[in-house]
């Protein structure tokens, strides 16, 4: 896993059938639709998905700009790109402290923390990135 504040290192992953993956997954691993369906409370969870959208505040001098949303990515369990925040039950907004080296269309495994605050239209409270690992 990669700390959200560290550089990315290449990783390998073996192709495992969905049935085998379900039995071997960590206790706190949930698919994106499972996270949205159960609307989990504050806590730390694992999930995986494709980066569908990357948002970075374009304002260089914060004092002279309108307030920006915190840097974030939209992650989906489907390999599709987004041009905005029209979310489905297959999507999550994950807020980033550091931009990371994410690429739209690439698959990652994430350790996330669901927070108490809610500032978006997604089903869950705000989600903060803890660690990530590139899968493909």
Overview of the structural elements:
This protein has 136 residues and is mainly beta. The chain contains two helices and six strands. It has helices at 18-24, 32-38, and strands spanning 2-3, 43-55, 72-76, 91-95, 107-114, 127-134. Strands 1-6-5-2-3-4 form a six-stranded antiparallel β-sheet. It is globular, with a radius of gyration of 15 Å. Mean pLDDT is 82; it is low at 5-17.
Straight-line distance between termini: 14 Å
The 3D shape can be described as globular
Counted by DSSP, the helix tally is: 2
Order of helices and strands: EHHEEEEE
Overall pLDDT: 82
Q: Biggest sheet, in brief?
A: 6 strands, antiparallel
Strand content: 25-35%
Query: Roughly how many Å is the radius of gyration?
Result: 15 Å
Uncertain regions spanning at least 5 consecutive residues: 5-17
Query: How much helicity do the residues have?
Result: 10-25%
Secondary-structure-based class equals mainly beta
Number of strands: 6
> Order of strands across the biggest sheet?
1-6-5-2-3-4
Task: From the structure above, extract its key features.
mainly beta, 6-stranded antiparallel sheet, 10% helix, globular
TL;DR?
The chain is mainly β and 136 residues long.
List the helices and strands and how they pair.
Blueprint: E1 2-3, H1 18-24, H2 32-38, E2 43-55, E3 72-76, E4 91-95, E5 107-114, E6 127-134
Antiparallel strand pairs: 1-6, 2-3, 2-5, 3-4, 5-6
